[in-house]
Amino acid sequence: MTNTTLYDQHFIPGTQELNEAGRLHLKWILLYAPPQRRTPWVQAGDSAEISQARLANVQQEAAAMAPHCRTMIMLRVCQPYGASAQEVDLVRRAYLASMPEPRISYQAQQGSSTGSSGGSSSGGSGGR
Predict the structure, then answer these.
(1) Pairwise CA distance, residues 18 & 28, whole Å
(2) One-character DSSP codes across 76-112
(3) Better-scored residue on pLDDT, 76 or 109
(4) Residue ranges of the domains in the chain?
């Protein structure tokens, strides 16, 4: 049911009409989803008026998109599981902008090194 639900991000906030992503998702539901899963679900709005406007707009779009398809469009009280790509992008950008500069304290060692000197010869005799 999650894949066939039109969520808040699929609607234009003022008019409750489907945006481009919503139209594409509705088209996928009506034409390409498995036949037994082709019932579009619409996330209920904050008020009955918003929910009714969404249902009416989705029914109108569905009739124009697939006139041969006589499917019921159902209202669903739910919350989306994820977030819109724009929201994810904003969170990621804010995270990257708030990262502190790396602070690695490095001091070069002075004096002799703790490793072996370069004069030792380990290995073979070179094939004599």
Answers:
(1) 14
(2) E----SS--HHHHHHHHHHHHHTPPPP--------S-
(3) 76
(4) 2-80
First to last CA, the chain: 77
Q: Which residues of 45-83 are buried (b: 16+ CB within 10 A; e: fewer)?
A: beeeebbebbbebbeebbeeebeeeeeebebbeeeeeee
CA nearest to 77, candidates 46, 36, 122, 108: 46
Q: Which residue has the tokens 């019921």?
A: 72
User: How is the beta sheet containing 5-6 ordered, strand by strand?
Assistant: 5-6, 41-43, 74-76
Q: What type of residue sits at position 127? A: G
pLDDT digit string (tens) for 88-97? Answer: 899 999 999 9
HSE-CB of 17 using CA atoms within 13 angstroms: 5
Contacts of 85 (CB under 8 A, 6+ apart): none
Q: Which helix (H) or strand (E) holds 62?
A: helix 48-65
pTM assigned to the model: 0.63
